[in-house]
Amino acid sequence: MVRPFKKTVLQLSIGLNLGFAALSSMAASPDYRNFETIEKQIQAFAQKHPERVKLQVIGKSAGGDALYFVQIAGAGKTNPNKRPALFVGANIAGFHHAGSEAAMHLIETLATSKEKKIEELLANRTIYIAPALNPDAHNALFATPRQLRAGIDGKLDRDLDGLIAEDGADDLDGNGIITQMRIKDPAGDMIIDPKDTRRMIKADVSKGERGTHRVYIEGKDDDKDGVYNEDGVGGIHPDRNFPAGFPVADANAGPWPGVTSESKSIMDAVLAHKNIAMAVVFGPANQLLSAPTGFERITPPGATPAAEANKIEADDLKTLAGLGDVYKKSLDQAGLDSKRSAKQTGKGSLANWLYFHYGVQTIELDVWGAPTPKAPTTDSATASANPTARPASAAGTATKADSEKDLLNYLSTNAPESIIAWKAIKLPDGTEVEVGGIAPYAEYAPSAKVLEPALKVHTSQILDWSGKLAQLEILETKVVAQGNDVWKISAVGGIQGELPTHTRLATRMRNKLPVRLEMRPGQGVTALTLNRAATVERLEPATTIKAEWLVKGSKGSTVDIGLWTSQAGQAMTTITLGKAN
After folding, report:
1. Over the stretch 458-503, which tens digit does the pLDDT of each residue have?
2. 95 phi and psi, to 5 degrees?
3. Which of 445, 444, 448 is nearest to 3 (CA)?
4. In whole angstroms, what is the distance from residue 407 CA to residue 398 CA?
5. Which of 82, 177, 242, 264 could form a disulfide with 258 if both were Cys (CB 3.0 to 4.6 A apart)?
6. Segment 110-150, tens digit of pLDDT
7. Per residue in 240-287, pLDDT tens?
8. pTM score over 0.85
9. For residue 55, what are the β-bridge partners?
10. Sign of the CA dihedral running 68, 69, 74, 80
11. Which segments of 345-402 does DSSP mark as H helices, in order?
């Protein structure tokens, strides 16, 4: 749940301090956890439930906070690091606090639940969770003035003038938050939305519109170079610092992929766990409401064109669509909007790296988004007055996705204090500007009451997906005597679960070990078949892998049959020559 945990013996015994600093009236709900609280709570879970929860510090943020990698698994026949696993990474964007709350809800559920279905799941699966991958930016929600932040604490000279953070945002109207600033300029490319004067939109030249304003982050030209707020606090954005689609010309992405501790640490941790078969990123995009498009290749001048894959494979899109159908139904059942607008993941993102480079089915989910307003239904009075009137579609009237418009409509009814009226202000140099717009984090940190049903849906979906992961199994073995202590052994392997062992992209790129069906002769048994193993790049549900071998050995000797792959577990059986198996 979003709210802090109820007081328990555990909380009292280790002295958890769940208090938050007092925030202004327009602050996000105090039910959101700052990083220190997240850290204390996951440490408490590890102490209280050591049989399920194990913590690993995989690195430090630029600001010195620990980056945690939480392993949750129950007792079972197989080592947790050998079982099929699902990885959840939250809030590497830094401003996506709903993602960290979703990760904490999942950790709490898995750590404390005594439900039989969860105990059975954790006996056969492992779930790895990184609940706060950008602690430096995460805590900006609780700072004053409050500004949407994605950058780490490292230094970054964005305008290449040799100075650091010399021209950041300024709280011009003194309300404790940083919003937008608009300046009248006939050469600008923005106009006031004629349908909603609270927001600015880009002028559509195809409709004959001409720009009337320029729009910036709220602030003045501190370094007097003629540009507003081009070099603010915070360093590289780690969710733009991964190799897949790395935006080479973007200063916020850093000089090269993996230069930040945040991005390199999570890549190293994931690469060290070869059993991860699926990944979920809690971030600002939603790839089940808006199918992922991949990214455009960027080739620096004079460089050889990139050869990396950059588009989602058709089979993997089909898998996502199947998962998305169930996901949308879950949203609808919880009273959430499954038809709302959704963003795409950005270049150089963790989600793109997990799919395109690490090679597993990956879904980025925003957890919550402002719903698309429903069209009013035609009432009986209207219908009587106008018999030709048609009922409005239940899906709403929006013909084009417009997340900002949906957000403004939602906030108008549910959090009007988050919409800051435009206010005229004169800058120190005499320039007249207006400050206003949507308060930071209003899009990503709804109230606890609003967010709670979304947390439950996403925890439920992750548990469901974990159970659907492919698990290898040996379906059949046969031994037929050939005479003179020669035996023909045959074996058939397959999978349990509803997902394939590998993505189609991984099979094309061959960056994952294939499925291997192998025969290992026991003592006194000699293999007569040269190739002791059969391999296949991918097993899908209802498909199999088969192999036959000839061996020579006395009756009663044994042979081991193994079915292996890194991310779908393993299956082993021992057969005895001359005995029914």
Report:
1. 999 999 999 999 999 999 999 999 999 999 999 999 999 999 999 9
2. -110, 5
3. 448
4. 13
5. 264
6. 999 999 999 999 999 999 999 999 999 999 999 999 999 99
7. 999 999 998 888 999 999 999 999 999 999 999 999 999 999 999 999
8. yes
9. 70
10. negative
11. 350-353, 380-385
Tokens describing residue 243: 């190799």
Residue 360 pLDDT > 50? yes
The angle subtended at Cα 88 by Cα 311 and Cα 100, nearest 5°, is 115
Query: How far is the C-alpha of 219 from the C-alpha of 420, rounded, in Å?
Result: 15
DSSP per-residue letters across 94-121: SS-HHHHHHHHHHHHHHHH---HHHHHH
- The three-class DSSP label of residue 330 is helix
Residue 161 identity (one-letter amino acid) = D
Strand blocks (E) in 458-580: 471-483, 486-496, 515-521, 526-527, 533-536, 545-552, 558-564, 570-576
> What are the backbone angles phi and psi of residue 526, rounded to the nearest 5°?
-115, 130
Cα–Cα distance for residue pair 518/498, rounded to 1 Å:
24
The values of phi and psi at residue 363, to 5°, are -130, 120
Beta bridge partners of 513: none
Provide the β-strand partners of residue 433: 425
Nearest-angstrom CA–CA distance, 224 and 228 = 9
Instruction: Please tell me the total number of residues recorded for the chain in this structure.
Output: 581
Taking a C-beta distance cutoff of 8 angstroms, is the pair 277, 469 a contact?
yes
The two three-digit tokens of residue 490, written as one number: 């045959």
Q: Which residue shows structure tokens 């005479």?
A: 483
Q: How many CB atoms lie within 10 A of CB 198?
A: 16
Give the ranges where 386-529 is alpha helix by DSSP (H): 403-414, 448-468, 504-509
